[in-house]
Write a structure and sequence with these properties.
about 475 residues, alpha/beta, TIM Barrel, Pyruvate Kinase, Chain: A, domain 1, 8-stranded parallel β-barrel, about 25% strand
Length: about 475
């Protein structure tokens, strides 16, 4: 089950892809991580999907990553008389805590946090930015706005507050219940929505207590202002372009995507590019050329993974969408320009023995035309360092921990394999050569480059580099 590409594919499960047959077909088509969207579906639905994935994992012998994506706070209007009202440009429109159904003059907004944070001149966006309001006057329980972009509002439409940090936890009571449930199921990554500040990551990490990796979804402009701190504290990240595109000008998002990918690579953190990548394949069997180019751009920029949402959760062509994404990735990675772009963005290693060894492994593998770099890791840190270097050969990640292998399924260019504990360095060499042959990375006469830490099994202690020949 070796993937003949470096970038990974994440697919969202939903009504279109809940059967064992569909999930197996998605995996065979190229999915490396399955996403469970806890904004939809019951706990029973998600439990059944996890059990199906784990049975598939056991059958195929390949670790599969599972991401539980928490819903996060949802800021919404209250109800409107007759269900809808029309706002006209230049009109005054009041928002307040009064639950009385709204009209074209006012509407309930049951979120005191917004009124506490808002300032005069701030913009409020309704219905994914289709309606734009500017605050002209405000208090602790109300805001009087001017309609900048008019339209029809209706019950429970979403509200965005770009540019402001709200005094709001990223974890609602629902999220906390879902989190407990997901951790008990054994998910590998927890996707944290509504991240505004580094403290949000710390709050989630305390609750998760090491039972899963923390994946920060970058969807708020306030998070971008403290990007490096958030990246440093997270285990992985997601460029949630849909929400970013609502709260900031759409023309800013492509450049921001490139910036996020570069920062994540510098810190050696896996990053997913998400939202509307092959959107037309929700209803059509082929994407637009612009969508194919969008996926290709993320791969050229060095993304660890690209993600499908509605395309696989509720679309009519979920398997075809994965196959298309797989073909696009392979095409890009065979383009000579791809390697030149990755090498041009190469960062100097940190001044540690582990980083020096990993950087040397990349260079040695290139010089001797090795078949693979083989890393022995307990926590995954060694494999993450190897992926940060973006070598031109595959990374075979050997670990005695199944949860580490599953997490590494998201990591660029990394093929994780669960192996027994090693007791001495000869066992390291034997396991590396045997696994490289069994997993079809190398054959007789090929060379592999090994990295490991001594004493064996010490997390983060990569300090050994060796070349081994396959016999």
């Amino acid at each position: 089950m070796r993937r003949l590409r470096h970038a990974r594919i994440v697919a969202t499960l939903g009504p279109s892809t809940s059967t064992a047959e569909r999930i197996a077909s998605l995996f065979q088509a190229g999915v490396d991580m399955f996403r469970l969207n806890f904004s939809h579906g019951s706990h029973e639905d998600h439990k059944a999907r996890v059990e199906t994935i784990r049975a598939l994992e056991k059958k195929t012998g390949r670790p599969i990553a599972i991401l539980m994506d928490l819903q996060g706070p949802k800021l919404r209007l209250g109800t409107i008389t007759d269900g809808k009202a029309t706002l006209k440009r230049g009109d005054k429109f009041r928002l307040d805590l009064d639950p009385t159904p709204g009209s074209s003059a006012r509407a309930p907004l049951p979120h005191r946090e917004i009124f506490e944070a808002v300032v005069d001149g701030a913009d409020l966006l309704i219905d994914d930015g289709n309606i734009r309001l500017t605050v002209r006057e405000h208090g602790n329980d109300y805001a009087v706005t001017e309609v900048v972009t008019g339209g029809v509002i209706s019950d429970r439409k979403g509200v965005n507050v770009p540019g402001l940090v709200l005094p709001l936890s990223p974890l609602t009571e629902k999220d906390r219940r879902d989190l407990t449930f997901g951790l008990d199921l054994g998910v590998d990554y927890v996707g944290l929505s509504f991240v505004q500040r580094p403290d949000d990551i710390a709050e989630a990490r305390k609750l998760i207590a090491g039972r899963a990796a923390v994946l920060a979804k970058l969807e708020k402009p306030s998070a971008i202002e403290r990007l490096e701190e958030i990246v440093e504290q997270s285990d992985a990240l997601m460029v949630a372009r849909g929400d970013l595109g609502v709260e900031m000008p759409p023309e800013d998002v492509p450049g921001l995507q490139k910036r996020i990918l570069r920062v994540c690579r510098r810190f050696g953190k896996p990053v997913i590019v998400a939202t509307q990548m092959l959107e037309s394949m929700v209803r059509l069997p082929a994407p637009t050329r612009a969508e194919a180019s969008d996926v290709a751009t993320a791969v050229y920029d060095g993304a660890d993974a690209v993600m499908l949402s509605a395309e696989t959760a509720s679309g009519q062509f979920p398997i075809e969408a994965v196959e298309m994404m797989d073909r696009i990735i392979k095409k890009v990675e065979h383009d000579p320009l791809y390697r030149r772009i990755l090498d041009a963005d190469h960062y100097d290693p940190e001044s540690t023995a582990a980083d020096a060894i990993t950087a040397a492994a990349r260079q040695v593998a290139h010089t001797i035309n090795a078949a693979a770099i083989v890393t022995f890791t307990t926590t995954g840190s060694t494999a993450l360092r190897a992926a940060r270097e973006r070598p031109n050969v595959p990374i075979l990640c050997l670990t005695p921990r199944l949860n580490t292998a599953r997490r590494m399924a998201l990591c660029w260019g990394t093929h994780p394999v669960v192996t027994p504990e090693v007791r001495n360095f000869q066992e390291v060499v034997d396991q590396a050569t045997d696994t490289a042959k069994r997993e079809e990375f190398a054959g007789p006469g090929d060379k592999i480059v090994l990295t490991a830490g001594a004493p064996l099994g010490t997390p983060g202690a990569t300090n050994v580099l060796r070349i081994a020949w396959i016999t």
